[in-house]
Specification:
Number of helices: 1
Number of strands: 0
Distance between the termini: 118 Å
Shape: rod-shaped
Mean pLDDT: 96
Order of helices and strands: H
Helix content: over 70%
Length: 86
């Protein structure tokens, strides 16, 4: 089987196109990796913020429970004062 010059030229063009596509994909991959890195950084910050908000929420719940106990105690004291006629 004889190889024609036109076949070689066609193969060369196809190889050039493949190299060009490879370079484009390499650049796109670099861009996407940078984008992923930024998203991961943002995710870390959001995770820290979420943990902080959870701690605040837990503290808030504890304060609500404490406030309710104080309110109950205050109501008992007010009832005692009423019974005493004060």
């Amino acid at each position: 089987m004889e190889t024609k010059v036109s076949d070689l030229v066609e193969v060369e063009e196809l190889l050039k196109e493949l190299v060009k596509r490879y370079e484009n994909l390499k650049e796109e991959n670099k861009y996407l990796n940078e984008k992923l890195r930024k998203i991961e950084e943002e995710n870390k910050l959001l995770h820290k913020e979420l943990q902080h908000m959870k701690r605040i929420s837990n503290e808030n719940e504890k304060l609500k429970a404490k406030n309710e106990k104080v309110r109950e105690r205050l109501n008992l004291l007010l009832l005692q004062l009423e019974r005493m006629g004060i």
